[in-house]
Amino acid sequence: MHVLLTGGNRGIGAEIVRQMSERGDHVISTSRDGSTGHRLDVSDGTALKQFAGAAGTIDLLVCNAGVFLDRGQELDGGFDADKWAHTFAVNVTAVFQTIQAHLPNLAESQSPKIAIIASQMGSSERASGGSYIYRASKAAAINLATNLSIDLEPRGVAVGVYHPGWVRTEMGGAGADIDAATSATGLIARFDALSLAHTGVFENYDGTPMPY
Ligand code: NDP
């Protein structure tokens, strides 16, 4: 399987790359620092299109790169416009533009799939206040997945959106529930199970359905 993943240099993305490569998938992953061999800042729309133009056939596109910039911000005075702009550029706009740019590459696959790594923090049913920017960005990512699943079904492309668990990475912190390996193993099983029969799913890494 030909896999392309954004943000593969550390955290959950690096572990997905490691496990999928180990089992024999051909995985290309991008990183801002170029350490994965493919340098790409996903918020650079021009670079993103150039990269997609040379990427070739893709069976699975994983939109993993993300930022969480407003943890612990105060409602009174916090959440400045720069944080909104940066977060939405990476967590929302770049997800859409990555998918859009790779549609021709996905069209070359026999069974193309798109996986978006969102978060339970974007679930409207699990809204518990705070982190307005991150929550709104992940809610938008979930919404994108749902709408793309409708439009891409006639093209044979299955779309899934996932909560990776609360994971011990730089973003999740040392006190999180699970390690990156456990999250990645679960997510890879979800990607394998994703098909047109249930396109548009929002699932936890362990397969539990998530509330939208
Ligand atoms: P990390 O902070 O450990 O890693 C984030 C990754 O995204 C890094 O590879 C980072 O690259 C990359 N990235 C950030 N901004 C850009 C950009 N502009 N261009 C390209 N790459 C970028 O996070 P996790 O591994 O924990 O998170 C992975 C995904 O899972 C994210 O979408 C996150 O929102 C989501 N998630 C994580 C949870 C957790 O508990 N950890 C819970 C729920 C969701 P760089 O090194 O250059 O910064």
Question: Can you lay out the helices and strands and say which pair or pack?
Answer:
Elements: E1 2-6, H1 11-22, E2 26-30, H2 45-53, E3 60-63, H3 81-107, E4 113-117, H4 132-152, E5 158-163, H5 180-193, E6 201-204
Parallel strand pairs: 1-2, 1-3, 3-4, 4-5, 5-6
The site of NADPH dihydro-nicotinamide-adenine-dinucleotide phosphate has 30 residues, from α1.
Provide a quick synopsis of the model.
With 212 residues, the chain is α/β, with parallel strands linked by helices.
Structure, explained:
- This protein is an alpha/beta fold and 212 residues long.
- The chain has a 6-stranded parallel beta sheet with strand order 2-1-3-4-5-6, with helices on both faces.
- Helix 1 links the parallel strand 1 and strand 2.
- Helix 3 runs parallel beside helix 4.
- The structure holds NADPH dihydro-nicotinamide-adenine-dinucleotide phosphate.
- The site of NADPH dihydro-nicotinamide-adenine-dinucleotide phosphate (NDP) has 30 residues, from helix 1.
